[in-house]
């Protein structure tokens, strides 16, 4: 895979930073797109269990799955766990910044810390499974060339 996981990880980390460290959240008012979608779910018996709190927790998990996945792929089979540990550290930084620097508009919570770390862990474990199930690529053998 080369450097592709690292390049994607850098881009995805910037995306997470943008989503979590800007002063304003997505529009979650009842009139906004998320509010209308949640109202749609609430209006139907089959999906009425999809509350804002549950959707927020699932979104937090989902947002960190690619982070853990890409970092674990980059680190390899022996250090796959770094994807999980770095996800936990990164979310600690995010939640800390939200509590201290962005407190008027953002809210750092233990729940976010747990769900983000869980997402990074799921991603790292998925990457490990893929690395274990897929055979390692053989590096091409060095060819000795003689110049005459």
TrEMBL record:
Keywords from the named record: Membrane, Transmembrane, Transmembrane helix
Database matches in Pfam families: VanZ
Domain VanZ-like intervals: 7-130
Transmembrane segments: 7-26, 46-73, 80-101, 113-134
UniProt superkingdom: Bacteria
The keyword Iron is assigned to this record: no
Matching PANTHER family: INTEGRAL MEMBRANE PROTEIN (PTHR36834:SF1), MEMBRANE PROTEIN-RELATED (PTHR36834)
Protein name: Glycopeptide antibiotics resistance protein
Species of the source: Brevibacterium aurantiacum
């Amino acid at each position: 895979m080369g450097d592709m996981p690292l390049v994607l990880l850098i881009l995805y980390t910037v995306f997470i930073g943008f989503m979590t460290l800007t002063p304003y959240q997505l529009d979650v008012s009842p009139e906004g797109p998320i509010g209308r979608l949640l109202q749609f779910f609430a209006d139907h018996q089959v999906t009425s269990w999809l509350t804002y709190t549950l959707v927020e927790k699932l979104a937090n998990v989902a947002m960190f799955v690619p982070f853990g996945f890409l970092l674990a792929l980059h680190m390899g089979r022996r250090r796959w766990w770094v994807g999980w540990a770095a996800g936990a550290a990164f979310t600690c930084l995010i939640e800390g910044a939200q509590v201290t620097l962005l407190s008027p508009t953002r809210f750092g919570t233990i729940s976010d810390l747990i769900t983000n770390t869980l997402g990074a862990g799921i991603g790292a474990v998925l990457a490990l499974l893929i690395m274990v199930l897929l055979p390692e690529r053989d590096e091409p053998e060095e060819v000795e060339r003689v110049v005459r």
